[in-house]
Amino acid sequence: MKITEKGRNFIQEQIIFYPVQTQFDTTYVHGLGNNQEIGFSAFNYFLTAPYTNTPAQNISSSLGPYPTAAPNFQFVYQKKFEPTETFHISVGTKTGIASGATPASSSFATYNFFMTSTKIESLRTTLYVGTYSGNPAFFGYYKHRLLPGSESSISLVGMMYGIEIDVVPEKFRLVCDMIAGVNSVGVSVCGFSYEFDRSYFISVGYQIPNPKDGTFNPHALLIELNAYF
User: Fold this and answer.
1) How confident is residue 48, by pLDDT bands cut at 50, 70 and 90?
2) By Cβ atoms counted within 10 A, which residue in 3, 33, 66, 149 is the most buried?
3) Counting Cβ atoms within 10 Å, is residue 187 exposed (0-12), middle (13-18) or buried (19+)?
4) Euclidean distance between the first and final Cα of the chain, in Å?
């Protein structure tokens, strides 16, 4: 929920190390002022082709641990409201295109969110609670059917939670967050964030599948490289 200052830019490279492949998610935003930012996101790109153990034409009917979520290229917008010094509200969207095998098979993809943060000064802790909604082009499909003749059920609406504890103010903090539900982003991640200075910081965490989601999102190591400029 940190909004990029007016006239400044923010870029984040998120790298997820799965057991057999590596995923890259890139986000760039520009601060517009009035607690708004705008930019783009390239989500769900792999160093090696995903589902390498599966012929591409049989993805929808095969078994395997990875979701069939297509690479996305999306417009990003976020607006934050500050009713009090310790309670903030943020709304935003990632909306664009999920690429298919051909340009004609690409589809509309969207992810929208509403988030609140509550800062507890005495504990140097911030709590986050929010909700999200979107469509299958963003959240993905299972590679197999749960029930004969029916598409697998994925979560297109759900809750988000987080906690951030400042161990060393403006330098080192512990972070945990969760996107509830069964879909391509439905995981919990716990780790830490370290700020080299006000412009550069790194986050490292361990990704854990949500309950009933163990075959959709494997365990993984996640690293985020972040920079303001």
Assistant:
1) low
2) 66
3) buried
4) 18
